[in-house]
Amino acid sequence: MPIAIPNNLPAANILESENVFIMYEDRAYSQDIRPLKVLLLNLMPTKIVTETQLLRLLGNSPLQVEVDFMYTATHTPKHTPQEHLIKFYETFDTIKSRNYDGMIITGAPVEQMPFEQVAYWDELCEIMEWSKKHVYSTLHICWGAQAGLYYHYGIPKYSLPEKMFGVFPHNIISPNQDKLFRGFDDIFYVPHSRHTEVRREDIEKNSALRILSESAAAGVHTVADSDGRQIFITGHSEYDPLTLKSEYDRDISQKLPINIPCNYYPGNDPSKPPVVLWRSAANLLFSNWLNYYVYQETPFDLSRL
User: Site feature Important for substrate specificity: at which residues (predicted)?
Assistant: First the structure.
């Protein structure tokens, strides 16, 4: 949240030069305040787990956020009780007349399939097109980021020789120059769990996109358009402490090829409790998105979108 200060306070220039978010009193007094409306398009099969992870981060802010949940009508989830979907979720047909301050498109376990072969691809494209006029800022996560980059900008994804699996150090491309990473340490950690990637050279060919953060091991992490209306994140900052463990144990039990997740277990020993390295960065990432790209930018009257 910004610091509201008197107009012409001498400290203002120093604070602004240090990239501290300030707001002059005349703007603070004139602000209209209302709850933020955020739409969560949950593409994960375990919807209750994913919605809990994301709500935990969205709720760690002084901002009041109202969340609507959506799933795709063209695919029936198998791992979420039907009564949960009926009670809490809506389909695109029921929400497409609304406007939202923000939207989150989650990952999905379909990354090894061509986009066009995903059962709900056409519906997802319709939703992403709709978001251009009905959502102020959309946050795409993991496969959702790959799908968004492909749909909006034609950026392809590539198969990896082995699964990108673990918790990896990342750095910001231009420190102190992007609001999404205000307050971040020089090195921050993010979990990844994916079989595919997007590549820097493809993104750099498009002048409408900016790479904001990356990892020497995990590659491109955050990509955004010029005004933050579309943000693409290839990792899983929302993961719980034991999410990677659950995935690892599942694959081991099914005798699938899987490496021990990097930088996760002390001494690389799966018998020991994992160490959480990403929690503070995850909370700051979502708080910054809500504050700088949603709350500070969305018109008070959402019909003006």
Answer: 193
